[in-house]
Specification:
29 helices
Length: 617
């Protein structure tokens, strides 16, 4: 389905800001714009870097002048393997409860896609070639299956019977494509996964199972995820190290430290080789989940078993920088040097970004000067970090000076660098410079990508100019870049807040037509738009759809929703929905709706009639 935005008036909102951006994007691709184009130095040498601890004192971040040898690390793809034999049960008894779904008849393929890590199996490993990539699925078949799931999942009709009758050939690539469509809705995804497992002639493989694990992990359905992991462990050809990585990252993202380590320990029970690469994956997952302190404790506990290398320390350094604990980051930096390692460019950039996040710009500049003097030499990423910070602060002259210094240092800017400058000048409403940068990007061989287009769309939607943002959106598609779910969320929110209900709904339909699965944010914006424009029945329908799909209840204006229903003669609609959710076992959703129902009862009498909802933020 093609989204034409027929209701957008070509002459509306043609302000210099938007016109210059769209015209510039058109010019660099030699495509005529859809609307008139005329309307749209150096850093000083500083003393050695100092870090400040919580007590207000300072200490030096030392820099080793010589590169010392590091511990050798083998290729992870040669170590994450195991021999053939049946694995023990993965789940401890207390972990499972009686309400878990039954085990899947996975009908797994008897082929292995990984080799053994032992030396005795090296010859057989070399004789096994990796399987060829599967052919892409038929998009029409994917659309047909997804349409059946959308229409029948929440109804009383038998979805599986209808899927049996459509006569689609089930293949691994098709299963992965369908699961990707429902990656934010674990209930229909899991139900389809089980149906596919029962199809005659189809056998789940590691790719489809890992995709299902990823869906369950991202939606935090941990009991079902571990149950599936246990079922995968019954076949030597199915369970791979990637499955454990997905599980570890899912638990870490939910800040489930104990369960994360529990998955790590289970790897040994399946006789996989647990080396430094695997341990680094665990440290990295914990650090990205803002569990740097816990990751440090784990490293101290297991340092004798897994000797850390520069990658271990860099992952931990990123964790401390992410939580803005610069005292610990500085201590760790010195520990890296004391351990005989020399921080590489990734470590330096991580520390530089941490200082910027902690509002230590002067110390970040000192680190930059130290890199120039003693190495490693700053790269494109180094300068982009500084330019992005200066653009956010509105210091565009300094950002341009840093950009010029970057060019003088023979560092070629990339798309991310130009996008930072474009956003900075766009926020400063200097669209002539935005147009110049867009043209320069094309001339220097790095034309705008999806990030650049999304940045331009965000600039326009933040200024309540959705019609002009749509023109950038069309140009984005025409130049071969697929919009992301964030693109549609921005456009949809801008239209709803601009009191254009019909176009907000059109964006939703366009997103579904592109095969993009709405996430919680998408539903929140869409339901909020219905509430804002006085359409409680539509809002209620999509709240039910979210809950039926296993998604969390959206945070919207339930006071206005309940008030609208009260005026329509249905004052207890939220209580009724909460009771329904409680009866079906969705206790979190029930508690949320009960909370808003009680608030509504206390406040609805004090709210005046506000049918349009324009005063809402």
């Amino acid at each position: 389905m093609t989204f034409l935005f027929r209701n957008a008036n070509p002459s509306s909102g043609l302000r210099p800001f938007a016109s210059a951006a769209a015209a510039a994007v058109s010019n660099i691709h030699d495509i005529a714009p859809p609307f008139p184009p005329d309307s749209l130095r150096s850093l000083r040498q500083s003393p050695p870097l100092l870090a400040t601890d919580r007590a207000g004192g300072t200490f030096h971040l030392r820099c080793s002048p010589l590169s010392l040898p590091r511990s050798p690390v083998s290729c992870p793809h040669r170590r994450f393997h195991r021999p053939y034999y049946q694995a023990p049960t993965i789940l401890p008894p207390p972990y499972l409860s009686s309400h878990l779904p039954p085990s899947l008849p996975l009908l797994l393929k008897p082929t292995r896609v990984f080799s053994s890590s032992s030396e005795s199996d090296s010859e057989s490993d070399n004789s096994i070639s990796p399987p060829p990539p599967p052919p892409p699925p038929n998009s029409n078949d994917v659309d047909r299956i997804c349409k059946v799931i959308d229409e029948l999942f929440s109804s009383d009709r038998n979805m599986e019977v209808v899927l049996d009758e459509i006569g689609v050939q089930i293949e691994s690539s098709l299963v992965v494509a369908v699961l990707d469509r429902f990656r934010h809705a674990h209930r229909p995804a899991y139900r389809f996964f089980r149906w596919a497992a029962a199809r005659p002639g189809f056998l789940h493989d590691s790719t489809t199972c890992n995709k299902m694990l990823s869906v369950l992990g991202k939606t935090r359905q941990f009991e079902t995820m571990v149950a599936l992991l246990e079922e995968m462990g019954k076949d030597a050809a199915l369970l791979s190290m990637d499955a454990f990585k997905i599980s570890v990252k899912a638990f870490a993202a939910a800040r489930e430290m104990k369960k994360c380590i529990g998955i790590f320990k289970l790897i040994k029970k399946y006789d996989f080789h647990v080396g430094l690469d695997t341990f680094n994956c665990l440290i990295d997952a914990l650090s990205k989940a803002k569990l740097a302190k816990e990751a440090q404790q784990l490293l101290d506990k297991m340092k004798d078993q897994y000797h850390p290398d520069i990658h271990t320390y860099t992952a931990l350094l990123y964790g401390f920088c992410k939580i803005k604990d610069l005292a610990e980051a500085g201590r760790l930096w010195n520990e890296i040097l004391d351990s005989g390692f020399k921080p590489d460019i990734v470590s330096h950039n991580t520390m530089l970004e941490g200082l910027i996040r902690g509002h230590r710009r002067s110390e970040a500049i000192k680190l930059l000067e130290l890199m120039k003097a003693k190495g490693p030499k700053p790269n494109t990423r180094t300068y982009t970090i500084l330019i992005q910070d200066l653009c956010k602060a509105g210091k565009m002259e300094q950002a341009v000076s840093c950009f010029d210094e970057m060019l003088a240092a023979c560092c070629s800017p990339d798309v991310a660098t130009y996008t930072c400058l474009i956003v900075g000048f766009g926020n400063a409403r200097q669209m002539a410079k935005v147009s110049s940068l867009l043209a320069e990007m094309s001339q220097k061989g790095c034309p705008p990508d999806a990030r650049t287009y999304n940045a331009l769309i965000k600039l326009l939607t933040n200024r309540n100019m959705p019609d002009d943002a749509v023109r950038i959106y069309k140009k984005m598609i025409k130049n071969g870049f697929e919009p992301t779910i964030h693109t549609y969320n921005m456009l949809m929110k801008s239209y709803f807040h601009g009191n254009n209900y019909k176009m907000g709904c059109a964006v939703w339909e366009e997103m579904l037509g592109k095969g993009i699965c709405p996430d919680v944010n998408s539903f929140t914006v869409f339901i909020g738009g219905h509430i804002r424009h006085g359409r409680p029945e539509e809002a209620y329908k999509y709240i039910e759809e979210m809950i039926n799909k296993g998604m969390s209840v959206p945070q919207v204006d339930y006071n206005k929703l309940a008030a609208d229903f009260s005026r329509a003669g249905r004052p207890d609609v939220l209580s009724e929905l909460a009771q329904k959710m409680n009866f079906t076992g969705k206790f979190d959703a029930s508690n949320t709706l009960n909370y808003w129902s009680e608030r509504m009862k206390k406040r609805v009498k004090r709210r005046g009639p506000c049918q349009s909802g324009r005063g809402l933020v």
